[in-house]
Amino acid sequence: MKHAVLPAKDALLLACRVEPRDDHPLLRGIHLLAGLHERRLREEVDATRFHAGRHTIALAIDHWVAVELPVPRGGARMHTETLGSVLDRLAEHCALAHAALSSAPKGQVHEAWELLAELALGYQDLAVDLTTGSRRLPDSFMTDLGHAVRRRRGIDSQRVVSMDHHRGTSIISLSA
Questions:
Q1: Domain of life, per the record (predicted)?
Q2: What is this structure's pTM?
């Protein structure tokens, strides 16, 4: 069985800034997450809707990962957060780093970009570990999808994760 490939860190960082040409679900997801974070930095947003949007996108990413990535080997080390959560932080810090360019003192700009680079490198290492099966992700998102997801391949194959291409609007739908 052929498994999905996780995008490279450079593709994710680019997708934070421009709409991805590749139709990869993670690129679409991080693009949407970055749009939410950029909007929050530009204007006042409803906190409940903002966090609900982030949660919904991260959940869709985690669902895709659970279905598409190989089942980790026995004894695979646990990562501390889901991939949806990792991509949300990456999108947030990308938005913060770009916002810092126009308004922050030089030292803060450097710190923001250094942190973004570290997060991107951490993602790339995690992506390698996940695709080789040497690391596994926590099941913390399972309460939203139901207990059957814990079996990784036990997810109903008819369940579709759809990510709308409009940043900051009604963005994700999980349909049965």
A1: Bacteria
A2: 0.80
